[in-house]
Queue: 3 jobs
Job 1
Amino acid sequence: MDAIVSGCLQAQLGAVERMFAAIATAPGARCLLTGGAAAPLAAHLKIPFQLADNLILNGLVRYAESR
């Protein structure tokens, strides 16, 4: 079981860091992390990041209020 969990974590980290590489040279670039897996991912990331609680829900509220 540990090998599966570790493999999934490494796959997620690789995907996030690979996508970040496309914007890494932009001034102030950082990865926004949200959701249930944000904290476990953050503990292992080697890129600038910011934890953003309820990012999706806050966006939906803003969208609803703008209509």
Job 2
Amino acid sequence: MIAMIAAGSASGQGRVSEGGYSIFNETMVDLNYQQVEEAAKAGAILLWPLGVIEEHGPHLPLGTDIYNSYATMKQVARLLRAKGQQVLIAPPMYWGINDATGAFGGSFSVKPSTLKAIIEDTFASFRKDGFQSVYIITGHGDRLHNLTIVEGVEAARSSTGMRGFVVLAPVMRDRLGLKGTEGHVVVTDAPAAGAALSAAPRYIEVHAGAGETSATWFNFPALVNGPLAASLPDTKFGPDDLAEWRKGWDNARTKTPLGYLGDPSTSSAERGGAAFHDGAQRLANTILAHVAASPWMKHRP
């Protein structure tokens, strides 16, 4: 059943971008309904990559967040299958909330109520097919976006009976004021979206800098303007600059007129590859440990 997805990839061999630039490659979208129903009966868990469409400077595409979120979940799925875990990737969802980049062309945003409704309706679709659990990551670091997802998942769990979990890095958990003990939040040591490549960068790196540029360059090289990225100077921002940028709209556009915050000039496909594989492995380990500790999974076939 899942063989048509897993063939040649269960061991994690091959680039996750070998399916081209389709964010549906190796997801349940390319299966037929019988295969989906069979996967649900077999106790497969779902991975649901979320992101947004927004500007990412002059050197990256609008789809950076969803491309990277999808690629990460694709690699995670391969790693989970190699450990014997049945898994499907749900259709990547790229509608979300853009506060910081809202003033730039190509940054789409939906109301929090819309995002919550999409989560609830999608959970209902998962549940009617017989799936029990879904793990969510988002490639977008906007606080309101992430808070809305966490609140939306909590509400959708109650209304649909779907066991939904939002996987967050500690830095995002703290930004949202969560304790990490909430039943619908899973904390991972995988880096947050837009994280810097070094543990202690000299300046703040959060948007279209070295981290995101390198990750996109590794998985989707044709979408990165490498020469332009190499020519862009470090924004050299500190905490006060970040706080001003996070106000969004005109404040952000004034602060970052070229739409990036960080140092894309230090990016490379090699750095992106190392960070990508490390982050995906950490995320896979987090999900495997959570599944193993979940009592309802022990009773699945």
Job 3
Amino acid sequence: MPTRRQEIIQMLEHGQMSLYQIAGYFKVELFEIEEDLEHIQVSIRPRKLKRIPSQCKQCHFVFKERTKFRTPTKCPKCRSEWITDAMFYVE
């Protein structure tokens, strides 16, 4: 039986998922999945954990430089809270 981290890697090899979708699938808290993704980022080398960054739905600001896995709460440009989730995948 594969571990949760192995299952996450398999899921992200087959498609994109947000942190919230992964946490919902495993029925665990977000911080647990954040820890898993941090570990996966290092353990899957030479493959890479890639991210499609969050984006403000109001002004279209893209959070390119963000290193945290969670979705930002406010846009630094327009202060909107209407932000898409970052999507993750393994390449």
